[in-house]
Amino acid sequence: MAERRQLRPTSGSRTAEAIMVPAEYRGLGRSELRLIAFSTGGVVIGNQRVTVQVYDTSGSSSSFLQAIVDYFVDCFGSFPEGCVPNFDGPPAQVFLPEAAWPQPGVAVSTDPQVSPYIWLADGIRSTIVYAFNPAAGFSEIYRFSDRFDRFSSPPVALDSLDAVVGTEHGDLKFEHSGFLVHYGSPITAAPTRMADGRLAVIGRNGQVSIVSNHAEVLWQPLNGPSIASAAASCTHLFVSSTNELVTFDVKTMTPIARVPWTDGGRNAPIIGPQGHVYAITNFGLFVFPPPQPLPIAGVAPPACSTP
Q1: For residue 155, how many C-alpha atoms fall within 13 Å in the half-sphere facing its CB?
Q2: What are the angstrom distances between the C-alpha of 15 and each of 9, 20, 104, 191, 295?
Q3: Neighbours of 134 (CB within 10 A)
Q4: Would you state the pLDDT for residue 5?
Q5: Mean pLDDT across the chain, nearest whole number?
Q6: Are the C-beta atoms of 151 and 84 separated by less than 8 Å?
Q7: C-alpha closest to that of 34 among 47, 15, 18, 19
Q8: 247: β partners
Q9: What's the chain look like in SS3?
């Protein structure tokens, strides 16, 4: 019997030579994740199979697919406050039940001494590292896999040739170095790198945490849950939650502006090239002007020492 398969492209990233796009092929009883490299002209120059997931639907198996089925029955059949699947036990109670988990994501880290590393989180169990050469294709460098299936955020590449992902169990995982920061709230959104190297981590239940040197150094509650990454400039951190957009001073993490709204927290704010901040809710797009120029003539605005 012919098998009907659906291609599901997800968010991509760019190296100097190519654009990297993870794509899921889903069929009855199985799914396959591939990493596809496109040239800047749109030609496929690499196609790497990453993982294959086979779903066991037998009554004797506690499979990944069965966990998903149980999740939809438990979460949407009785309409609780919200939940995400927990494959080691009953579903954990959290917010935003209608919001799905992110698709597999890719990140690229560069170091002048080595070729770029391509980090791919499959969203189920593993984070895989590849090197890429346009002539030879992909070469797998590392593969980090958990013992049990779990959802994860897209990866964020760090300067130390490490990458970090968040998981549905509230763990912030530094994959290569092996550090683990237990956060307590499911982490749906990819952590945000700040200009000074710290990470801003958004908890799905409505918290923002600042992580430095593999340790949580600050914690702030949000006015509602969120599945959206924060946006960081040199001076400010913008965070979207269901009930407001809040702006923090990055040095003190003090809230300095709050914009009340309804039904946000699902899309990350974006900082435009001229400093405008774009934020969206289910009811529309908000555009905020950049900070006013400094009143002292001839004084340039502060700039980040790193991108």
Answers
A1: 33
A2: 18, 8, 18, 20, 40
A3: 12
A4: 35
A5: 81
A6: yes
A7: 47
A8: 238, 257
A9: CCCCCEEEECCCEECCCCEEEEEEEEECCEEEEEEEEECCCCCEEEEEEEEEEECCCCCCCCCHHHHHHHHHHHHHHCCCCCEECCCCCCCEECCCCCCCCCCCEEEEEEECCEEEEEEEECCCCEEEEEEEECCCEEEEEEEEECCCCCCECCCEECCCCCEEEEECCCEEEECCCCCEEECCCCCCCCCEECCCCCEEEEECCCEEEEEECCEEEEEEECCCCCCCCCEECCCEEEEECCCEEEEEECCCCCEEEEEECCCCCCCCCEECCCCCEEEEECCEEEEECCCCCCCCCCCCCCCCCCC
| Cα–Cα distance measured from residue 301 to residue 106, given in angstroms and rounded to the nearest whole number | 33
pLDDT, tens digit (0-9, with 9 covering 90-100), for 70-93: 444 444 443 344 444 444 444 455
Which tokens belong to 168? Answer: 């549905």
What is the pTM assigned to this prediction? 0.77
